[in-house]
User: Fold these one by one.
Assistant:
Number 1:
Amino acid sequence: MPKSEVTPNSPRVNKSVSAKPSPVELHIPIKILSSETATGSNTPSGNIHFREQKGDFQRLRTMMNSLLIVLFFALPFISIDGRQAILLDISQQQFFFFGITLWPQDFTLLAWIFIAAAFGLFFITVFWGRVWCGYLCPQTAWTFIYVWIETRIEGSSNKRKQLDKASWSGSKIGKRSTKHLLWGLAALLTGCGFISYFIPARELYIDILTGNASFWVTSWVWFFAICTYLNAGWMREQMCLHCCPYSRFQAVMFDANTKTVTYDAQRGESRGPRKRKQETNLRESNLGDCVDCNLCVEVCPTGIDIRNGLQYECINCGACVDACNETMLKFDYKPNLIGYMSENDLKGVSYSYWRSPRFLGYGAAVVIMLIVIGLDLNSRSEIQLNVIRDRQSLYRETADNKIENTYQLKIRNKTQDTKQYQLAVDSEMPFSLIADPIITLAAGEQVDYPVTVLADKDAIPSGRKMIQFSVTDVKQPSQQVSQETGFFSP
Ligand code: SF4
Ligand code: SF4
């Protein structure tokens, strides 16, 4: 049998579909397991109590998750130019983002950033499958915190399963109450952390601790706390399985070169238990490297058996990789019976990402988005100007034979400093401005500034002429905005 083929009894083959697999099945064999058929560490109550696992990938995952959690709580306490680094001030309609102030008018920039992030995620998925889910997704990070708390209070996965089955006693009530109390505290802290992106963090925590927070602020903190408690404490993998759209469509981005957590069925099958140092008998009895210890299943947070092939429930956390490597070490076998491998890795086929249309397509999309964001940021003005004509009358004639048009200028200082602006009206014809040309605006301030433009009736042709208002930063003339409008005369 060629090395690239999968053995007939390999779990990578979905026997229930047909004896003659379609080309799609040959490339990405997916076996859909319902929660009933999943062979994980489910208890009769439906909870999955997975074993804690140590190993290289778990260290990496813990490090990434810890970094995410530390950043989540710490970012609102970082100040840049005296302002919170990230603050979405909805009441003032200002968004502070690392020294840049964004206004609702800048939403196109935010949209570009989100689109670029989405394509970045797709790009990474082409290489590494669902690493986002396993290593950086907040749902996974918070679930692992909650499981960590649960393990400290209720013990190992076996003890937790026994506690589930045990009838209610003083000890069970004590453990469960302590666990839920700690889950509740973690949830409240998370609620505060989330709201601190909308309300200055230093004020928020003090107000919450002293009970001085407003009704709405307190309600929102509780709302997010309850969501966290339910998500990370109760729903856990159900969120990934039933609510997250990414788990449903991520397989579309996979190709034969995508490295994802995979069981090497050709090497592992036929699986079977054995004693250590039974190598000779093992080979004679045609057993593969899988000793059927079931550890890969017991450590799986979504309760699946990766030996059944690629499944959408797999969040690529690598726990089964570490567990299996531990077993392989004990039996003195090569590591990576389960590992981050692509279909081509299993077949021993060499490949180049440069020939992958997905790699090139997503990569090009990310680069284009970054260029668009750069151009958008570069062309962003720090002044906002909106010219509105007086709707009551097109023009007025004065006693001294002049024509007047009036306008309302909405000028906003989009920076976080007080600014002085020079107002001017530009045209080839002799127009003059009846208003103070110097305007001082505080940080973020917007004014409605009424101005009148005047012209000699004999010096301008009749009908509509175009004029241009401009507002220039006195100290920084490169910061200038202008807008054209019409001037009417009889
Ligand atoms: S199959 Fe392995 S990588 Fe996938 S979720 Fe389960 S333990 Fe994590
Ligand atoms: S951990 Fe490895 S050896 Fe044990 S059952 Fe899973 S695949 Fe087989």
Number 2:
Amino acid sequence: MRAHINETARHSHSLWVSERFGPTFQGEGPSAGRQAVFVRLLSCNLDCGRGEGAAWSCDTPYTWDWDRFDRKAEGRRVPVRDLVSWILDRRVELMVITGGEPLLQQRRLVDLVVQVLAEGRRVEIETNGTVVPLSDLCRANVTFNVSPKLSASGVATSRRVVDEPLRVFGRLARAGGAVFKFVVTCQAELDEVARLVDAHALAPVWIMPAGTDADVVLRRARELAEPVLARGWHLTPRLHTLLWGDARGR
Ligand code: SF4
């Protein structure tokens, strides 16, 4: 069961938040190693790891899996103005909005993003690439880290690969506003990435080893390094996992 996210005007000045933390390091993608503050939003429209044949599981099930977690304990509605002042109090250039799937609340996210940008900050929004982003979010100094899921997620293809959002993100990427990041467990999955990349003209591509413990991430990164180089793609660590394992709030 997933959270019901109310996008009505009555709640237009608050967001359903799972957790906020930082300064810490952005652990993934082109900004890996940069200082950042994180706002993690509640709810997701996918359920990675639950389907048959899944090779890895979502590392933030507490944002959406209400069979295993208590929604009331895991999330609360936070006024946008509180989030803005919390972010600005932390003197860090980069704000990362993550989830869950943050674009499920995107109408209410616009306010937060606009106010943070106005203070000279930079924003990254992490998304699974299944929701078309509002044009109001596609601004200078906003980058979408788009992570389409592979069959190893155990999610049906029709739910995890959606043409229209991928087309929009592909166009954004060509203008420098998006990158694509694929969670991979082994070298064999790179062919599936290549098929998706070719079918939807996705670039630039970052490959990220799946795993919530440092030994697994490092072993997979070593296995993937040469094949990723050979395909002309980039490799990202999960820096937070290498440093802190699966600790929350890092
Ligand atoms: S899309 Fe991301 S947050 Fe949603 S279930 Fe998959 S891994 Fe978890």
